[in-house]
Structure formats: C-alpha cells, structure tokens
Amino acid sequence: MIPKVDVIHGDRLVDHYFWLREKTNPAVLAYLKAENAYTDAVMKPTKALQERLYQEMLSHTKETDLHVPYRDGDWWYYSRTEKGKQFSIFCRKRGDLEAPEQIIIDLNELAKDGDFIQLSAFEVSDDGNLLAYSKTDRHPLLLTVNMAAGHGGASGRYDHLHETAFDYAFLLTQLGVEQE
C-alpha cells in the first residue's frame, strides 16, 4: 500500500498504515483477518493461561454493583452494573431511594451494534425532562451530542458541550478524519 505523507511545520511524517482506516476496503478486511488468524495461532498455546488469568481478574471484580447515588433536585441519580453485562446502566429515582427506578441510559443497549461505548458527559435539564449526553462508540474520536427538543437553555449550562464539540471538530479536521 502507498504510505500517506504529511508535512507539518517542516517535519515530514510518514504513515505506512493510513490505508487501514478504509474500513470497507476488501484489502483492509483481508489484512485484518490475516492478522487475527496469525495472533490466534501464536497465542493458541496460552489459551488456558488466558482463561485462568481472566477468571482470576473477574473474581476480584464486583460485577453487580451500585455506585453511590447523588441528589439533583427531586431526583436521585446513580449508575449500576449487572453481572454478565459489560457497560454501566444510568438510572434515577424520584423523591427517595425506595421509589421505582427509571433507566435513563443503558450503555449495553446502545453498544449492542458495536464493540465499545463510553459516556463522556451527562447533563439533565433543570426540569428533569431532557438529557444531554455525549458518547464515543465504534468511532472513539467522534463526539455525538444528543439533546431532545433542542433545549440549550439560556443559562449556558450546556456551553461546555458546544466547546467540547468544537474541540473535537478541530482535532478531527487536523487528523483528516471525514464524516462517514
């Protein structure tokens, strides 16, 4: 493959693996499949050890857990994890901690079509009806801001999300990443 060459401030940067960004390119898929097969073959003798180490680490992890709740207005917010699920579930209860649970965001549901997701920012409107959040998923550099009904508020409480979006947009432009 042809290397990508950039010149930045007089420095010549050569990226021999830039072509791997073309996720739908059959050559990229074939290369990655071959790399995975090679890794599987080389690591095969350590399969039992890998499983033993994984089980050892898992034994020290509390898979079903509830993080400390915090109060915001009439609501108690918290996140929890469940055994067998990889990602957190963000919830709230109105009034007191004995109230029925409302699941706000289940990252396991959002990640069911991909391998990775992370919640970066999480902000609930003053009236508790709207949620602004940013997440990363299969595109770890790409920022998504979801805000129902376009509620931005005159208070400026969501300004940091706009600033973050501009920071990411600048970074992506500098990296030459284009929207898919």
What does this structure look like?
- The protein is α+β, with helices and mostly antiparallel strands and about 180 residues long.
- Helices cover about 30% and strands about 30% of the residues.
- The chain is built from 4 helices and 10 strands, in the order E-E-H-H-E-E-E-E-E-H-E-E-E-H.
- The protein has helices at about 25-45, 45-60, 105-110, 160-175; strands spanning about 5-10, 10-15, 65, 70, 75-80, 90-95, 100-105, 120-125, 130-135, 145.
- Strands 3, 4, 5, 6 and 7 form a 5-stranded antiparallel beta sheet that branches.
- A hairpin with a 7-residue loop joins strand 5 (about 75-80) and strand 6 (about 90-95).
- The chain is flat and about 60 Å long.
Please describe the structure with a list of short key phrases separated by commas or semicolons.
single chain, 180 residues, alpha+beta, 3 domains, five-stranded antiparallel beta sheet, three-stranded antiparallel beta sheet, 10 strands
